[in-house]
Amino acid sequence: MNLFVGDICRIQPAPLQIRNRTILQKYAARQLPSAKLQAISRGRYSVLNVSTNGQASTTTSPSSTSTATTATFNKVTHYPGLRGDDFRHPLDQQNTQLLRLLPGMEFLARSVMSPATEQILYLENISSGIKVGEDQLPSLHKSLVHAAGVLGMEVPELYVRQNPVPNAYTLAISGKQPFIVVHTALLDLLTPEEIQAVLAHELGHLKCDHGLYLTAANVLALGTVSLLPWINRAVQEALTRWLRAAELTCDRAALLVAQDPRIVASALMKLAGGSAQLAQELNVEAFLRQARSYDEATSTSLGWFLRNAQNRALSHPLPVLRAREVDRWSTSPEFLALLNGGVKVKVDSGFVGAPAVI
Asked: Cys-Cys link to 200, which of 125, 254, 256, 291 (CB 3.0-4.6 A)?
């Protein structure tokens, strides 16, 4: 199954600005020779102006020479008025519609999330995890607040739980504030920027109203309740297929916050087979080449069949395919339109926190 969907919107002739060197370079490499590319350095970001007079030039912004500003602050894009549908993956849209058409799906989701199950989940986290706040793991709290601010949404509760498996998940319980759970192994494995990308991924589920189906899927996956015998296998498979598609949407939310595809791809790479001891030797570009090798290996009829069989058993898309999807979307007109339509804010470069609008 080809997860990549082509361009959804077109770039208008007006100048297009891209404030990220990695995205700028990849976008420039994919444009027609007639495009005019003007790169302007601004701190750790860049600006790309595109026109069609067939000439290219590079200039430096005066602000880039001011160490007093660039050494202290970074400019980050926020997306006021952002809707889930603005970045929802097409496969998420398709599978959500199919899920709603299945008889019994609503009943299944609401049956799994009984009041007793909700109370069990809430008490389990409040009693067995650490609730993150301004006075408890404050750097992690700032990271979450910043990510929620970028996406234009309220800040959910965040818990850290001791677990040797690097993972994070979101639960949206009716009548209670939704919350995110992060395992200690994930915090030990990833950099602060990668952790924030994971938090943004989880926020993406809430932004896109994945709550009911996502919570039902997570409850079943966590084994909090047993799979009832009356649940039709087709319904179960549809829920798993939807979850895989929803993950692609939330990887886009991670990119909207990280604003650098390498950060998101690096997090996915480490979750696939990373080691804190060998972190400095990991290569994101090699991981993306690995994804292309997988595409080639599954391009035959037999490969396509085996690929579908492999994916059907998974609750999440394969890590290499997720990284490839993020990399491709980072240079799409759809993403660039969101990036350039946002509001630039100033944040402390020491670590992400609540920004001040400039």
From this structure: 254
Amino acid at 122: Y
Counted residue by residue, the chain has a size of 358
Tens digit of each residue's pLDDT (9 = 90 or more) over 343-354: 888 766 544 443
Residue 181: in which H helix or E strand, if any? strand 179-183
Task: Provide the domain count of the chain.
Answer: 1
Comparing 70 with 109, the larger pLDDT belongs to 109
Mind listing the pLDDT tens digit for each residue in 278-297?
989 999 999 989 988 877 87
| CA dist 301 → 69, 99, 297, 314, 337 (Å) | 56, 28, 10, 21, 37
Summarize the confidence of residues 216-245 as an average pLDDT: 68
The model carries a pTM of: 0.74
Report CA torsion sign: 20, 188, 202, 126.
negative
- pLDDT above 60 (res 94): yes
Alpha-carbon gap, residue 157 to 180, rounded angstroms? 6
CATH code, domain with 120: 3.30.2010.10
β pairing state of 157-161 and 57-60: unpaired
Q: Active site residue: 157, 193, 202, 325, which one?
A: 202
**Residue 303 domain-assigned (yes or no):** no
Exposure of 199 in the CB half-sphere (CA atoms within 13 A) = 33
Q: What's the pLDDT tens digit per position in 231-254?
A: 566 777 788 889 999 999 999 999
Using CB atoms within 10 A of its CB, is residue 150 exposed (0-12), middle (13-18) or buried (19+)? buried
Q: Where are the alpha helices (DSSP H) in the chain?
A: 21-30, 67-70, 90-101, 105-112, 115-128, 138-151, 184-189, 192-207, 211-222, 233-258, 261-273, 284-297, 301-312, 319-329, 333-341
Residue 206 lies in a domain: yes
